[in-house]
Write a structure and sequence with these properties.
This protein is of the alpha+beta class. It contains 18 helices and 41 strands.
């Protein structure tokens, strides 16, 4: 069956169904207890909207991973849950089983009894007293519904921000789920303000007032989007709703720009966190760490709040002292530092879609030099390779020139940091507007295409990344290896439609090293690869040229990097992307792994993901031995965008845990024994820091960790 871009077809090996989504470019495989020929059926009766539905003449569906399921009756009320490895059973009736953590949203409708269990492979859903089930599927892709035009007048920019909330699919606490927020409309500069009918919020149910200056307007973008608020000019920054006024600066209007931005972000964090707590009274009444962390501190009737109108609920939230909520406030996913110029207003919807903390700092230009003075082995921009140059001269020159000055931004507690302005940021991504828009485009499904290009004989050790890409069950990769490409050949590889290019070789101001000279990316009219890594010295400028020519994003270096540590970074990056990390998330881990890892950055839109994480949100784990036979396992979530963005719930499948946690930052800590630790290692490939080293779960056993 094919509904626009969703295809559901039966498969023989393994026996089951394959669901492909040509908007997101993902494929999901479910196994069945017998061959099936999916028959199109009515999309009604799944409680939630679905894009396509089929009838399957089988009574058992197996999901080859440990996912959680919720069993609802025809009214949508939860009647049973299968969390972690727990089983659930309901008597004959009419049910819809909602399956979590798959790349497409899947529902199984049953007229009969339902039992769900887990085994060594994953989760089973078995229907009895019937001879079939119905499968409903919905794409998780979100695309902006419209484009708002604004002038450079701050008052018009305020009106544009007053349109961002139009993408919300609900203003109930359920909006804390990333799939119910939608992507805000795009914004562009023009000669007059223009918005489609119904997009601009005109009422004052929730109102943000700020002085009509862009440095006050930009930081409220995410708050305006999440609150579905209007933004209006006023002498003093404040939030007004249902008779409640919350100042966004210190009393009497004093306070620094940074204090204003901190208060805006803290207000967003408080409302978002309380929504995550209150939503447990609604469609998903699951155990939640955030609720348990603060419920005793809140003098609130959560069930009553769930049903209150937006303004009344918000006013109640804002009466709560921040200190009472703070234990449950998650680590924030992203901070966006943006120059408050009208030319940058088009970036704000992308920041708001990620609920980013938006700041308008005054960046200061500083010189960048390698952190280590001992990189005296050959560097990837000179020394011993083809077209080598004087290594000493290369080490002394920071990456500047045509890309502008190097800028160092104020630190942030967020996982990711983005810089929108002139110059080369240190430790932050540098997006372009065109690259951000390209990420929203439809992507055909099929194997994930990767090309590994090794154009330096001295760097052949890194070609083993061809074995690291594709280390995933049920995710098909098509990895091709190239060595010593000529300029024409490398130009062809970059021009082909492909998901990723991993380049290994020398780079300097002439371009990328080739067998017959140098290929300057500035000479390319178009490239077809979505993303790339240029694992070479000072590859920033060449990477920016690739983004301008059509790529969405790439990982590049700011300075010279030694060959051996760069090889380690290349291998780690390949594994991280394979495990579902975005480029920006991978950059955070690279920066904490080695000193060399801090010399890398992301150009273009760092939210690009090469492969969806097996469990939805990719995880990073720290493991420390506690006793001879037990250790602590601490999990950290790295949310991406869309369905695994901020607000999704992650339930660690460790021991008998049935409690979820927001999927960002520290998820939880568990103390486990040898047997359980080995089971955790076998469940999935994920990065592990133990004994001060970054390792991978598929290379570890309990004996490697415990004293």
């Amino acid at each position: 069956m094919n509904v626009r871009t969703l295809t559901i077809r039966g498969t023989d090996d393994p026996v089951g169904v394959e669901i492909t989504d040509d908007i997101q470019g993902v494929t999901t495989v479910l196994r069945t207890d017998g061959p099936v020929e999916p028959t199109p059926t009515d999309t009604d009766g799944f409680v939630f909207p679905v894009d396509a539905a089929v009838r399957l003449g089988v009574t058992e569906i197996r999901i080859p991973q440990y996912v959680n399921v919720i069993v609802r009756n025809a009214d949508g009320r939860t009647v049973a849950e299968g969390t972690n490895r727990a089983a659930a059973r309901v008597p004959p009736g009419t049910y819809v089983v909602e399956v979590a953590s798959l790349a497409v949203k899947v529902y199984v409708a049953v007229e009969g009894a339902v039992e769900t269990t887990t085994d060594d492979v994953g989760r089973r859903i078995v229907a009895t007293d019937t001879d079939h089930v119905r499968l409903g599927v919905r794409s998780r892709h979100e695309y902006p519904a419209a484009t708002i035009t604004t002038t450079d007048d701050p008052r018009d920019v305020m009106r544009a921000l007053s349109c961002l909330g139009s993408s919300l699919k609900t203003t109930s606490p359920e909006r804390a789920w990333p799939t119910l927020r939608g992507h805000p409309p795009l914004v562009e500069l023009g000669e007059r303000f223009a918005a489609p009918e119904g997009f601009e919020r005109r009422g004052d149910e929730v109102r943000i007032e700020v002085p009509p200056a862009l440095r006050y307007v930009f930081p409220v973008a995410s708050l305006a989007h999440y609150l579905d608020a209007t933004v209006r000019p006023g002498p003093t920054p404040r939030l007004v709703t249902a008779g409640t006024t919350v100042p966004l600066v210190e009393p009497a209007g004093r306070g620094s720009q940074r204090e204003f931005e901190r208060r805006v972000h803290r207000t967003l964090a408080q409302v978002f966190t309380l929504d995550c707590v209150v939503r447990t009274e609604g469609l998903y009444s699951v155990r939640c760490h955030e609720r348990e962390a603060v419920a005793g501190r809140l003098d609130l009737d959560l069930a009553d709040l769930y049903d209150r109108p937006l303004a009344e609920r918000l006013a109640a939230y804002l009466e709560v002292p921040y200190a009472a909520v703070e234990p449950a406030v998650p680590t924030w996913k992203q901070t966006v530092d943006v120059v408050p110029a009208a030319a940058n207003v088009a970036h704000l919807p992308f920041a708001a879609a990620d609920l980013a903390q938006v700041r308008c700092p005054s960046a200061r230009a500083v010189a960048v030099r390698p952190r280590s003075p001992t990189i005296d082995e050959f560097c990837r921009s000179g020394g011993q390779g083809v077209g080598s140059r004087n290594a000493g001269d290369a080490r002394e020159r920071p990456v500047t020139g045509e890309e502008g000055p190097v800028v160092r931004l104020d630190p942030t507690d967020s996982i990711e940091q983005t810089w929108i302005g002139e110059g080369v940021p240190v430790g932050a991504s540098k997006p372009t507007l065109a690259a951000c828009k390209r990420r929203l485009d439809a992507q055909p499904s099929g194997p994930i295409g990767v090309a590994v290009v090794s154009n330096s004989p001295e760097m052949r050790a890194e070609t083993d990344v061809t074995d690291l890409y594709g280390l995933r069950e049920f995710v098909a990769f098509d990895v091709e290896m190239y060595e010593d490409l000529t300029r024409a050949e490398l130009r062809d590889v970059l021009a082909e439609e492909r998901d990723f290019v991993h380049y290994v070789g020398h780079v300097d101001e002439r371009g990328m090293q080739c067998a017959d000279g140098w290929l300057d990316a500035a000479t390319l009219d178009a490239v077809g690869t979505r993303a790339f890594v240029l694992n070479a010295c000072r590859s920033y400028a060449q990477g920016m040229h690739l983004v301008r020519a059509g790529a969405i994003a790439g990982v590049v270096t700011l300075v010279n990097v030694g060959n051996e540590p760069a090889t380690r970074v290349g291998r780690t990056l390949a594994r991280l992307l394979n495990a579902g990390f975005s480029l920006a998330g991978a950059l955070d881990i690279l920066g904490t792994d080695t000193i060399t890892g801090r010399q890398y950055t992301v150009v273009g839109d760092g939210q690009v993901v090469l492969a969806e994480g097996k469990g939805g949100t990719p995880m990073f784990t720290e493991i420390e031995s506690v006793t001879e036979d037990r250790c602590s396992v601490r999990l950290y979530g790295y949310p991406t965008t869309g369905w695994s963005g901020m607000g999704a719930l992650y339930v660690p499948t460790i021991e008998d845990n049935d409690r979820g946690c927001l999927n960002v930052g520290e998820i939880g800590e568990f103390t486990v024994g040898r047997e359980e630790l080995d089971r955790v290692f076998d469940s999935e490939r994920f990065p592990v820091r133990t004994r001060g080293e970054l390792r991978w779960s598929d290379e570890l056993s309990a004996d490697d960790v415990l004293e």
